[in-house]
Amino acid sequence: MTIFGKIIRREVPADILYQDDLVTAFRDTGPQAPTHVLIVPNAAIPTAADVTARDEAALGRMFTVARKIAEQEGIAEKGYRLIVNCREDGGQEVFHLHMHLLGGRPLGRMLTGGPNG
Ligand code: 5GP
């Protein structure tokens, strides 16, 4: 099990903002913006490349929870970014699928660097 699996089961501490039967949302411990929240399915889906039709309810819930947390954080009006990193080239470090919700400052262009980094 990954560290996120343990957070979902409340076996390790985290600043959990929301939890229901399908998803859990908690603050990232290495925030890259004033608001940096991770929204994860409770099911242990390793990466975006492992998603199946069975996961669609949880994946949809991740977006509605992102919207609600963005409103609570006061960043909805100015905007924010949702990111899902996938596997090695995507920069994924924790192999439990997660959506980053980032905002609270201008985030600039989508990627830094050009096609070759
Ligand atoms: P990835 O690079 O896999 O898309 O993002 C993993 C994220 O998880 C990183 O932003 C990192 O700061 C965050 N993270 C890693 N370990 C922990 C942890 O134990 N607790 C919390 N809340 N966030 C973590």
Question: What's this, in brief?
Answer:
With 117 residues, the protein is α+β, with helices and mostly antiparallel strands. The protein has helices at 3-8, 56-73, 87-90; strands spanning 16-19, 23-27, 35-41, 80-83, 99-103.
Architecture blueprint of SSEs:
Layout: H1 3-8, E1 16-19, E2 23-27, E3 35-41, H2 56-73, E4 80-83, H3 87-90, E5 99-103
The structure holds guanosine-5'-monophosphate (5GP).
Describe the protein's architecture and organization:
This protein has 117 residues and is of the alpha+beta class. The chain contains 3 helices and 5 strands. A 5-stranded antiparallel β-sheet has the order 1-2-3-5-4. Strand 1 and strand 2 form a beta hairpin. The longest helix is centred in the middle third of the chain and has 18 residues. The radius of gyration is 14 Å and the shape is globular. 24% of the residues are buried. The structure holds guanosine-5'-monophosphate (5GP). Guanosine-5'-monophosphate binds next to strand 2.
pLDDT below 50 for ≥5 consecutive residues: which ranges? Answer: none
Beta percentage is 15-25%
Between the first and last Cα atoms, what is the distance in angstroms? 32 Å
Radius of gyration: 14 Å
Descriptive labels:
single chain, 117 residues, alpha+beta, five-stranded antiparallel beta sheet, 24% helix, globular, binds guanosine-5'-monophosphate
